[in-house]
Specification:
- The chain has seven helices and five strands, in the order βαβαβααβαβαα.
- The chain is mainly α.
- The strands form two sheets. Strands 1-2-3 form a three-stranded parallel sheet. A two-stranded parallel sheet has the order 4-5.
- α4 packs parallel to α5.
- The N and C termini lie far apart (36 Å).
């Protein structure tokens, strides 16, 4: 399971475990910026895995330049590049390590573009001969956030890229008006 952060992973991992799935967690998030934010989320993810006893793998790559190059021509549709980049790396890892399927903690967030995420995951799964688990973790979102806060996990304020940070804290965000 691709993991974007510890708070989103809490309930996703619990749900898969409850369902009897055999899974590992995978960290690959070159979209997270700035560097200090990336480090904070990555360290919290590793601490979460250690505390909760989850096996994890990682491709620790701070990808500011490549991410910006990938979205610069179409910043408004940056999520498509972001999803494809992270899910494709997860699928590659899954294929090499003989996993039959993959999913992502992004599926817990009511703020993600779910249809695009599922379409991207299914296209990549087909390409790699895998299954993309289209789990609807969204009903667990608030519980996951509460559980993460209770456990003292770092709680980020935006999706990850500098553009989502801008939207979160600018007048473009209806929540901040």
């Amino acid at each position: 399971m691709h993991c974007c952060c510890a708070p989103c992973a809490v309930k996703c991992a619990e749900e898969l475990k409850k369902e009897g799935e055999d899974f590992s967690l995978f960290w690959y998030n070159p979209n997270i910026h700035p560097l200090l934010e990336y480090r904070a989320r990555h360290e919290q993810f590793k601490e979460f895995c250690a505390k909760e006893g989850y096996q994890y793998f990682e491709k620790d790559e701070y990808g500011l330049r490549e991410f910006v190059k990938g979205v610069a021509a179409d910043i408004e549709n940056r999520c498509a590049f972001c999803y494809k980049t992270r899910l494709e790396e997860t699928a590659k890892f899954a294929k090499v390590h003989d996993f039959r399927a993959f999913t992502t903690t992004l599926l817990i967030s009511p703020y993600q573009k779910r249809d695009l995420l599922i379409e991207t995951g299914n296209n990549i799964a087909k390409e790699y001969g895998l299954i993309f688990l289209e789990k609807d973790f969204r009903p667990l979102f608030r519980q996951g956030q509460t559980a993460a806060r209770e456990r003292g996990y770092y709680m980020q304020k935006y999706c990850g890229c500098v553009f989502s940070e801008e939207v979160r804290y600018s007048q473009k965000n209806p929540i901040t008006k």
